[in-house]
Amino acid sequence: QQQVKQSPQSLIVQKGGISIINCAYENTAFDYFPWYQQFPGKGPALLIAIRPDVSEKKEGRFTISFNKSAKQFSLHIMDSQPGDSATYFCAALWNSGNTPLVFGKGTRLSVIA
Amino acid sequence: DGGITQSPKYLFRKEGQNVTLSCEQNLNHDAMYWYRQDPGQGLRLIYYSQIVNDFQKGDIAEGYSVSREKKESFPLTVTSAQKNPTAFYLCASSFLGAYEQYFGPGTRLTVT
């Protein structure tokens, strides 16, 4: 019930292409869905997040698409660059921020020239 | 310079020794969290604290202990009872009731 399932485990994309990472959840009480970006040896950094009252949020080349009825959300990275190569984690939160985040297992993205 | 600091960055210990990882924040955040990261496992919650002198177990608390004597500090002790302590440990913090959670740079612990 508390899990967030993330796919794929790893992804290789050509420079300039679109990277797509998907997540699914079961708990309908989740009310905040962030994505974190982590470079090797560093802590995760908040990249972009969405609330369930909107279906899409865009910040620069990064877009979250949210499908409430399917209980799925995804991260799209447009015009992927080698500097985007990192591990990406989706997560979910409920109870208005008074509980810890529940994380997916991560996707290792490699953008090749 | 505001943020979350974790020290040391790398830590080496012999099996059977307890070790304490430091986490300090000057963001005035109420809640603090400890996660463990292993390859392919994502981030797993060890302990969290929402207020001084109070903390709750996460999903993998066995073999770990914490204290929260000050708002800005949340040290994690990895005890000899933790069977596989070698991992990357991440501390995070947030305001209570806020969604955004911020992470420190992590401590890589190696136990041999």
Could you give a short description of this structure?
The complex is a heterodimer of chains A (113) and B (112). Chain A is mainly beta.
> How many β strands of chain B by DSSP?
11
| Strand coverage percent of chain A | over 45%
Structural class of chain A: mainly beta
Spatial separation of the terminal alpha carbons of chain A: 40 Å
Number of strands of chain A: 11
Quaternary class: heterodimer
Give the overall silhouette of chain A.
globular
Structural class of chain B: mainly beta
Number of helices of chain A: 0
What does the main sheet of chain A amount to?
Answer: 6 strands, mixed
Question: Care to describe what's here?
Answer:
- The complex is a heterodimer of chains A (113) and B (112).
- By secondary structure, chain A is an all-beta fold.
- Chain A has no helices and eleven strands.
- In chain A, strand 9 (86-94) and strand 10 form a beta hairpin.
- Chain B has 112 residues and is mostly beta strands.
- Chain B has strands at residues 4-7, 10-13, 19-25, 31-38, 42-51, 54-57, 64-66, 76-78, 87-94, 102-103, 107-111.
- Classes of the chains: A mainly beta (113), B mainly beta (112).
Q: Which characteristics define this entry?
A:
heterodimer; A: 113 residues; mainly beta; 6-stranded mixed β-sheet; 11 strands; globular; B: 112 residues; 7-stranded mixed β-sheet
Write the layout of secondary structure elements.
The complex is a heterodimer of chains A (113) and B (112).
Chain A: E1 4-7, E2 10-14, E3 19-25, E4 30-38, E5 45-50, E6 56-59, E7 62-67, E8 72-77, E9 86-94, E10 102-103, E11 107-112
Chain B: E1 4-7, E2 10-13, E3 19-25, E4 31-38, E5 42-51, E6 54-57, E7 64-66, E8 76-78, E9 87-94, E10 102-103, E11 107-111
Parallel strand pairs in B: 2-11
Antiparallel strand pairs in B: 1-3, 3-8, 4-5, 4-9, 5-6, 7-8, 9-10, 9-11
